[in-house]
Amino acid sequence: MTATRRSLAPWMVGLATAAVAAAVFAVPSVYPTGTTIYDPDRAWNGYTVLIAPEEIGAVVVDMNGNTVKHWEGYHGGAGGPARILPGGYVLAAGPTRPPHQESNALIQMDFDGNVVWQYDRLEQVQTPDGETIWSARQHHDWQREGMHSGYYSPEHATVVDGGRTLVLAHMNHTLPNVSPNVLEDDRIVEISADGEILWDWNFGEHIDELGFSERARELLLEERDLGNSTRGFDWMHVNSATWLGPNRMYDAGDERFHPDNIIISSRYANLTAIIARDGSIPWRLGPDYSETEGGREIGQVQGQHNPHLIPKGLPGEGNLLVFDNGSNAGWGSNNVRGAVGPGNIVRANSRVLEIDPVTLELVWSYSMPGRESFKFYSHYISNAQRLENGNTLIVEGADGRLFEVTPEGEIVWEYVSPYFAEREALSNAVYRAYRLPYDWIPQLDRPIERRVVPPDLSEFRIAPQ
Length: 465
Prior knowledge:
Layout: E1 2-5, E2 12-13, E3 34-38, E4 47-52, E5 57-61, E6 67-71, E7 83-85, E8 89-93, E9 96-97, E10 100-103, E11 106-109, E12 115-119, E13 123-126, E14 132-135, E15 138-144, E16 165-173, E17 183-191, E18 197-202, H1 214-221, E19 238-243, H2 248-251, E20 262-266, E21 271-275, E22 283-285, H3 293-298, E23 305-309, E24 320-324, E25 327-329, E26 345-347, E27 351-355, E28 362-367, E29 383-386, E30 392-396, E31 401-405, E32 411-416, E33 421-422, E34 426-427, E35 433-436
């Protein structure tokens, strides 16, 4: 594995592991799960929260991979991540509404599983059996006031009771200048604690500000059956929306980075952008990274997930941290998936990037070098989190692998999810995961931390029966 920081040697090779590779390749079918590497002296120790596949729910694991808490009633297939709030509260998405990739409600529970807050009143929808219900139509992401990046910082003051919540949602409408098809558009709403809509924005009405090429606009406008007519045309597939939060750029007078502005990620468009409170888009990166000198140096980012500003109180504060998936994404010419549809750019490896959002300097990155680059690859989902000691937690989501690396790229903790779901193939995928301090769940006794040293893979054998 390789991590790069401008102040370090250009390529610093850390510890390599072959426990799990990307699920899209021919890979070993037998491998260990749970914690496979752990150095207690160099890891940032705490609990890790994730949503297990299908209806298993939200689980919390300790550094040795033991599941120490489990909440049922949450669904990982549509609503995105689970997050722990101080005091042992969990907030995540509830029941889903197939074929739409969305949840009907955001639900906050206490440690004992009692529902203490819920939001499900954005729109009335029909269930597959024809029943009319209220729904949040929430998908992929949400944020709670005081934890704008979605994870722990010593300078956050996360609101547990009350406060605003940012919700990434769907809406269906027709905009002839975007497409002749009914859009399943992405909508961002900010709500009060009692569910009042405080701010409301959708992408279709701002297509002229998104940086699409003339050819991309032509492709969007081509009349064609684009799949499930009851769902709508998912033309942007936005997978992340977070407040910027307090940051050094705004402190220096740059209004583009107002703490209440929102940074989003469109997987299909290869677009990361900031939405201002007046509805404008004062900053964007992509869809075409060749537009700017900084973008050309970074290289094309595609299918990305969870771009956010590293919050104050953590190393790298104010920089943009993003999981650059690779895979196939983008609207434009030479489309490998046909005349219409995202996927004109293909890359079969992933990177984690830390970027100065003003200069577009690539401050730090993590990837596998050269011909081995495919060994770090999650073609969808995934995220990265900056930790208080300067390490980075990386979720290689497609194959259920979570690992923590030092700034030099050395793996000091690795965990492979043991939670599998039967779909088209056996999957232990993890959408996102987050590390949190032990004292955020005071109901649990602090666990004993035991070092885990991986075996010599050349001698690792399964004994015959």
